[in-house]
Amino acid sequence: VGMQSESQTRTSLIYLHVCFGGGSNFEEKDLDLRLANPLDLRNDTVFSLPFSFGEKDLDLRLANPLNLRNLLEDKKFTKTRLVLLHVAYPFAKEASYLVSVYPQVYLDFGLAIPKHRYHRMISSVKELMAIAPMNKVVMFSTDGFAFAESFYLGAKIAREVVFSVLRDACIDGDLSIPEALAVVKHIFAETAKQFYKLNVSSRYSDVEPLHLSTSFKKEQNSPLTDVTLVRVIPQERFYSSVKKHGLGLTIECMGMTSLSDDIAQDTWISPTGKVRTVPDLSTKCRVPWAKHQEMVLADMLTEPGKPWQYCPRDVLRRFSKILEDEYGLVMTVGVEVEFYILKTVLIDGKEEKRIFDRTPYCSTAAFDAASSVLDEIVASLKYLNITIEQTHSEAGKGQFEIVLGHTDAITQANNLVYTHEVIKGVARKKWSARYVYAKVGSNVFRYSPDGSWLYRDEASANDAGNGSHVHISLSKNGENVFKASSDYNRHGMSMLGESFMAGVLSHVRSICVFSCPIPNSYVRFQNKAYNGLFLCWAPESIELTMRTCSPPGTNGVVTNFEVRTFDGCANPPLGLASLIVSGLDGLRNNSKIPEPVDPFDYYIFDYNDDNEDIRLPSSLSCSIIHIFSDDWFLELLGENFLKSRRGICGDEIRYSCECGRDPYSEVMFKY
């Protein structure tokens, strides 16, 4: 393609017409028919059309592949396959168009690599793949000749170019990684084998791929708190040993509190021995803000295949399995994650953190001011395949919320761990540039009368704390069965949904041991402060402990219920497991939920001893008392497990009472 005159181009097309069985009625008598007469190429014939750029005796202006349209429209040639070689240079877009509309046209990008400059190689292949089906960019050929280096460099650079193009396609969301791998196989082997009917086999590498990370970030939760413990392992050791056998961790370390490195007293955790922290490879992912690292969650085992009794991830799995085995149900969870962003400023040569923003709830100004941080947080969460439903500024000064979409409880527990890590990791990255720091704990800002505490001029004692309100629903075979059906409808809930919610409501005070796990958590429980004080519920009332929810687009159907006694200091697996434990009690007893309260009458409740049986715990100590009076929790979780949790709570209470510094700012740095 690229003849010296339009006449020669037309003559060549007539020649093709004859070769493909079109007869000999044509004007140009100088064509040598002796080559055409023996050929019968109508049936599944392959014809390659070279585009010979780089040869000045050929006129590329006449090489536009759109000139083939009349031939391609002829019904006699529908089985004749044409391969446009050399990326159809300089008509890659036109060639890509032909491939997208004519099933018999295919593309080859030989000679473009390594003939072009590197940037042009990438752009040429991208142009070819812009609208052309991936399985019709038929193959790559080096078009090498004479020198061995031309074959080697062509193959080497082709791999780099295709990787660059497909990597960008994956980042942009055009392709998934499995789809990109399939495209690679098609380009370099499979399509050519099918196209030319080559009876050869292909073998793809099954060797462990090269991991680009220079270190491997391995994470696990402390079993009875939510302070994340991390071990960093070089990738070589991880894949040679830790991947299979895990790491040893002394059992005694599992008794540390969230506020100090001291081992808590009376935890019933052995002072000797080790557990294995074995990575759960299904949770392995690259760290979005440090992509030379990867992170993974770990299970705690006493021996291969045998979970440790205090492993929080196993506790959640165990009760999720009971729920599914006995009732065929899966608890699904959505979470409203709240956090603060603080700016770092220099005062008298010292770095101090100050309120990022002073605007009200859902302010556009607050979101705009923090958009660079929030954009990176949301992008990092999407990179980890964590569904984000919305984000907005909250009631606190510099407070924001990210809403995680519903998924099963086990996956959501993993998502919560990673979400906290992303928020803090991105904030630290910005903080290093004297920008911001995020806190996901439950603390409400406080200041001392003498003004000695951090934030003394910046925050109010009435500023909002950070919750992680959870939205609970039930799924059966992928269908929401929490909502009412034609068989049962009470307060918009199914029988299963009502019983599960009734169980949670009746055990809220015991749940608080895990969902509100530090003394500071209970400062949030205040009247008329978006956190109820009493054991009651109502539809769509955020002033109460629990509420049923009817999202937009559901025509008033109740799809889930919200529990507001859950904050950012909770251990995600243990907090969600305690909800399942409570719901199981409701299901086994076919419990009925009390009538909803009228939000206008809610404030007639007095905070006095007469209402002791209907109010939430006023402190972590009260929560501990309640759970040891709860026979159901004692039966399912076991007395030793609860005693271990009580030991850690006791030390945290003592630390909070005896701490000479501001306990609220202490919590912020721990979480």
Automatic annotation (TrEMBL):
Query: One Pfam family of this protein, by short name?
Result: Gln-synt_C
Question: What one GO molecular function would you report for this record?
Answer: glutamine synthetase activity
In terms of SUPFAM superfamilies, this protein maps to: Glutamine synthetase/guanido kinase, Metallo-dependent hydrolases
In which family does this protein belong, per the annotation? Belongs to the glutamine synthetase family.
What InterPro entries does the record point to?
Gln_synt_N_sf, Gln_synth/guanido_kin_cat_dom, Gln_synth_cat_dom, Metal_Hydrolase
Q: Record's superkingdom?
A: Eukaryota
GS catalytic domain location is 312-671
Q: Name one GO biological process term.
A: glutamine biosynthetic process
Q: What is this protein called in UniProt?
A: GS catalytic domain-containing protein
